[in-house]
Amino acid sequence: MRVFILEDDSLQSLRLQQILASITDEVIVQSFKKPEQLLAHVSQPAKDNIYLLDIEIGKDLYSGFETSLLLRSIDNLGTIIFVTTHSEFMRKTYEYRVAALDFIDKFQTDMEIRQRLLSDFRLIKERQALSVQTKMIDLESENDFLRLPISDIYFFETIDDFTKRKLSLYTKSQHLIVKGNLKLVEAKSERFMRVHRSFVANIDNVIKLDRKKRQLYFNDNTYCLVSRSKLAKLREILQTKFIED
């Protein structure tokens, strides 16, 4: 996880960093005194990003709230936690609609703040695990709208027809014909990868990469082809998941 602290008081920033260090050494912590410095370091959504925001920065009483809105426009996956002396503003977080996870009062002891953050981190991990298990994809067949678990999908394959808008979909339990193209399908999940001009594969379900035959296996009998140019990248991604042939 990466934790970004927005706090203009150096002592309070150091306090938070020490509390975080006592919780785990598996986080990368960066601290900023100004909102624009923080925003310059956030470039894309990431579910592992955690933002600890003070509400009052300098003389701006609502700076933390305003920063949270800008953060949400960049990162709609990260977690926002307000850490402030202004506990009277707790209800105001709902007005900004930034889906903050928690509101922690600085007047609490270090141990109390540590326990709150521990609980928050556990909840974040539980939500991430639940999201992975239940994430769905919406597709359309000739006559129906489909909602399928991404975890069930093996790969998509182009179909040679004059419309160029149909795909063969291979899952753990069925073979379907769906509407769409590989470019649009690949963008639907970070687990999908274009491995060949005719195939998009769900990397999570791969069990073997045969580099000699350039085949990507999902079970003993189900595989798709891999282009020569994708072999090196695939090997790097998958080398911790299985042994190649």
Task: Give a verbal description of the structure.
With 245 residues, the protein is α/β, with parallel strands linked by helices. The chain folds into two domains: 2-133, Response regulator (Rossmann fold, 3-Layer(aba) Sandwich), CATH 3.40.50; 138-238, OB fold (Dihydrolipoamide Acetyltransferase, E2P). Helices cover 31% and strands 29% of the residues. The protein is built from seven helices and 15 strands. The chain has a five-stranded parallel β-sheet with strand order 2-1-3-4-5, with helices on both faces. A five-stranded antiparallel β-sheet has the order 10-9-8-12-11. A three-stranded antiparallel β-sheet has the order 13-14-15, covered by helices on one side. α4 links the parallel β4 and β5 (102-105). α1 (10-23) crosses α5. The longest helix is centred in the middle third of the chain and has 25 residues, at 110-134. It is elongated. The mean pLDDT is 87.
Summarize the structure.
With 245 residues, the chain is α/β, with parallel strands linked by helices. The chain is built from 7 helices and 15 strands.
Notable characteristics:
alpha/beta; OB fold (Dihydrolipoamide Acetyltransferase, E2P); five-stranded parallel sheet; five-stranded antiparallel sheet; 245 residues; Rossmann fold
